[in-house]
Amino acid sequence: MSQVVIDLNADLGEGFGRWRLTDDEQLLSVVTSANVACGFHAGDAATMRRVCELAAQRGVRIGAQVSYRDLAGFGRRAMDVPTDELSAEVAYQIGALEVFARAAGTRVAYVKPHGALYNRVVRDEEQAGAVVEGVLLAGGRLPVLGLPGSRLLDVAEKAGLPTVTEAFADRAYTDEGTLVPRTRAGAVITSGDEVVARSLDLAANGSVASLTGRRVDVGARSLCLHGDTPGAVELAREVRARLEADGVDVRAFA
After folding, report:
1. Where is coiled-coil annotated (predicted)?
2. How is residue 25 annotated by DSSP?
């Protein structure tokens, strides 16, 4: 049997000015891919530069975490953005992060939508198409991270972009394999032991129990660990240690 390989990603650079949300330096010692906020839901120029430099020093892959323009709502509020405007804003965010990635001696390696945009493109083909158009507009053929079965991954594949399926150990799933909205009770898994157990389940079996207890197939090449929860660094370290102890090869996706 071949060894299980999985990437660990986290949302980083989610501060603005003097406000800090994630412990970027410590998380970058654990994860293999960093989803860096590009200024629309969080992040600013100085933060993007700092995170890119730290990621490059540690050999962590840099991804552009693109979002609706929603600093006040942290990118988690539903918005209706015209497709031509959204594609331009996606390209803008990728380009901004690329400047700092190149200055640090590396490149932006992939793209992942954030928050409301991430959830919207699971089902909305038009918005998914705008994101893909933005990736193409930014140049290169960057891989796109998304939920298995999402419209985003389908549209990206048709456009010739590599796709990477992603799972969440600290988020509850519906019976259909989508994420339970944060407005519902139980949407976020807060028990550290449960997050670790779900991480092992996802890596070994490619499935996880939904909020109702049904087994849901969510086979993924990358596992997201949210950095904005209490004890995030310690939990991320525990997840990686347990995965490696179980023989999982933790490394960035090819």
Report:
1. none
2. H
35-54 exposure pattern, b = at least 16 Cβ within 10 A, e = fewer: bbbbbbbbbbeebbbbbbbb
Tell me the β-bridge partners of 165: 146
Topology of the domain comprising 5-250: TIM Barrel (3.20.20)
Tell me the pairing of strands 207-209 and 215-217. antiparallel
Contact 169, 126 (CB under 8 A): no
> Exposed, middle or buried by CB within 10 Å (0-12, 13-18, 19+), for 219?
exposed
Give me the chain's average pLDDT, please.
93
Residues in the chain: 254
d(CA 121, CA 150): 7
**Neighbour-count burial of 17, counting CB atoms closer than 10 A to its CB (0-12 exposed, 13-18 middle, 19+ buried):** exposed
Which of 41-50, 142-151, 183-192, 228-237 shows the lowest per-residue confidence on average (mean pLDDT)? Answer: 228-237
Q: How confident is the model at residue 1 (pLDDT cuts 50, 70, 90)?
A: low
Helix (H) or strand (E) holding 55: helix 45-58
Which residue would you say has higher pLDDT here, 231 or 45? 45
Q: What single string gives the DSSP state of each residue in 119-165?
A: HHHHH-HHHHHHHHHHHHHTSS---EEE-TT-HHHHHHHHTT--EEE
